[in-house]
C-alpha cells in the first residue's frame, strides 16, 4: 500500500499537481527507511522489456536522457533556446501500472484494505451515535452560516447542459421573438432564419413546452449512453443543438454565450455558489482553441464565480473513420501544440492567452462502458503509428494527455503562467484499470462508482485523499440506481467526496442549487476522522 502511495506521489510531483499534504508528510518520514522492495517483487505478473522505451514526439526529437527537448523561438530573444523539460518514461509507467494491477488483486492486501475500510465505517457510525447532538449544537452557534450561505463549488458540470430545461425553453422562446429574422445557419448555400428553422419543424413558440423539448433523461437512457447523448438535442433536432448550445456555428455561438452568461448571473446573485464549467476541444483541427477563445472573449463569458475545464472526448475512432485524422499523434498535436505556442509567445494567440488564465485543467470524457480492443503496454503503437480505426484504450488516452500536460506545465511555470491539472471522468463504468490510471495520473476524478468493487483502490483513494466529484442523480439515469449509490459509504469512510450536478439540463427540474456542498460534507468528515488517522493508517 505504501509503495502505491509513493507511485502516486511521484507522478503528482512530476506533473506539478497536488499531493495530499498529510499523506506526503507521512511518506516523507517513511522514505527515510524505504519499504523492502523485495516484498513487491511477487506483485509483478510479467517482466518489463528493458530494451523498449517509448518517446513522445512533439515537433522536436527527444534526446537520450529521458527528457523532452522543446525548442523555443521567442522574437524578443532573437535566438533559439533549448529547454530541457521533464516528462515520464513509458517503460517506467507500464512497470508501475503492472505493480498497481497486481496489488489490487493480491489476496492479503485486499483483506487488509477491506478490514481497514470496515473499521473506518464503524468509527464514523460510533462518532454519529456519540456526537450527533453536540455537532448540531455547535452548528447552531456559528453565526450567519447554514447550508445556503456556505460557499459551494460544483466541481463537475458541463457548460452545454449547465441550465435546466425550463431555463433553456424560456431562452429559446425569447430568442424566437427577439431574433426571428436573424440568419442562424446555412443550408445548401442559402441562409436560414430563426423563423424558417422552426417553420420547417412545424413549430411555433406557443407549441413549445418542457415536454416537447424532451431533454430530460429517463429510464430509457439507463445503460444507453447513445440515447443519453441524443437528449442533448432539443425536440430531438440536432439543428437546435447546433444553434443554441454550440460555440462554433454560423452565429459564432451567440445564443450559447448569452445563456451561459445568464447562468453566471444566477450564480453571482446567489453569492455563495461557484461552478467549474467544462468546454469541449475535440482535436480534429488545429484552430479549435482559437475558435473557442474567440467565442469566450467576444461574448465576455467571464465571472468570478466560474472557472473552466477543457474536456477532450475520446472519439479518435469516429474522426479516423471519417478521415478527419490520419493518426493519434495528429489529434495530440491539434490539442496541445496551440497551447505550447501561446505559452511561448502569448501574442501569437492573444485571446487564447486570456482564456487560459481561467482554465484550471483537463477532463477526459466518453462512455467508459464501451469495450476496449487493446491493452496498453510496451507493445502498443506510438501515437504516430496508431492509424487503426479502433479507439485507443482509456489508459492510452490518459497517459498521453498526462505526458503533454506535464511538459506544458513545466514550460508554463518557467514562463510565470498558471498550470493545469488532470481531472477525468473515471470509474463511472467499464473495467477497474480505469481507476488505476486515474489514481496514478489524476489530481481528482469524477464519479468513481467502481471503487465500491475494489477495496484496495478505495483504501488508496482514501489515504491519498483523491478528490471524487460524485453525481448520484446522473448515475441514477445512466449506470446505478439512486439507492445503491456509494456516496454515503464513501463519505462515512473518509474519502474526499463532493456533490456535483453533472448535467442539470438532463437531470434537474429546478434551478441549480449550488452543486457540491463540498465544505459541509468535508466538515463532517474531518470531525469524524481527524487527520487521516495518521498513526494507524500510515
Layout of SSEs?
Blueprint: H1 2-14, H2 21-31, E1 67-74, E2 79-86, H3 90-104, H4 107-140, E3 152-158, H5 165-178, E4 183-187, E5 190-193, H6 194-200, H7 210-213, H8 225-230, H9 238-244, H10 254-270, E6 273-280, H11 288-298, E7 306-313, H12 316-321, H13 328-344, H14 350-356, E8 359-365, H15 394-415, E9 421-422, E10 425-426, H16 433-441, E11 444-447, H17 455-464, E12 467-470, H18 472-478, H19 487-493, E13 497-499, H20 504-507, H21 518-529, H22 534-537
Parallel strand pairs: 3-6, 6-7, 7-8, 8-9, 10-11, 11-12, 12-13
Antiparallel strand pairs: 1-2, 4-5
Could you characterize the architecture of this molecule?
It is a single chain. The chain is 45% helix and 13% strand. It has 22 helices and 13 strands. With 538 residues, it is of the alpha/beta class. It has a domain at 158-269: Irregular (Invariant Chain, Chain I), CATH 4.10.800.20. The radius of gyration is 24 Å and the shape is globular. The longest helix is centred in the N-terminal third of the chain and has 34 residues, at 107-140. The N and C termini lie close together (9 Å). The chain has a 5-stranded parallel beta sheet with strand order 3-6-7-8-9, covered by helices on one side. Strands 10-11-12-13 form a 4-stranded parallel beta sheet. Strands 1-2 form a two-stranded antiparallel sheet. Pathway: Purine metabolism; IMP biosynthesis via salvage pathway; IMP from AMP: step 1/1. GO terms for molecular function: AMP deaminase activity; metal ion binding. Pfam families: AMP_deaminase (PF19326). It is an enzyme of class 3 (hydrolase). Its cofactor is Zn(2+).
